[in-house]
Amino acid sequence: MAVESINIQIDKGTDFSQNFVMKNPDQTIIDLTGYTGVSKVRKYPEDSSNVQSFAVGIASTTGTITLSMGTTVTSNLTVGRNYYDILVTSGSSVVSKVFEGSVMVNATISV
User: What's the pLDDT score for residue 69?
Assistant: First the structure.
């Protein structure tokens, strides 16, 4: 399966949530029963100094992966372009990267 590239935006110091839907090449929904996920955001792909994790929720039968981050975490993000990816692990322990892209972190003046 090809890794889908989707760019996202996060306003620093605010709550964030976004859904991603896993589909087969014929556009049918992928059943994610038994899957787990992990997702992180970094200023640079190889940067290990400032890594923040998304909370990852999986709605198995709808093929939906939800990334979320609370205000405490988004407050620690670096303004500007960052990068993320989403890895899922199947019930049989196969790890796949399913989404990736850039994260534009916008400054929030009122926080």
Answer: 98
Q: String of b and e for 27-62 (b: at least 16 CB within 10 Å)?
A: eeebebeebebebebbbeeeeeeeebebebebeeee
Nearest to 39 by CA among 80, 92, 95, 93: 95
Are 103 and 50 contacting, i.e. CB atoms less than 8 angstroms apart?
Answer: no
User: What is the Rg, in whole angstroms, of the alpha carbon atoms belonging to the chain?
Assistant: 14
Supply the mean pLDDT for the chain: 95
CATH placement of domain 4-106: 2.60.40.10
Strand-pairing partners, residue 96, are 88
**To which residue do tokens 């990334």 refer?**
67
With contact defined as beta carbons under 8 Å apart, do 36 and 60 qualify? no
* Opening angle at CA 20, ends 5 and 60, nearest 5: 135
Instruction: Report the C-alpha gap between 14 and 48 in whole angstroms.
Output: 23
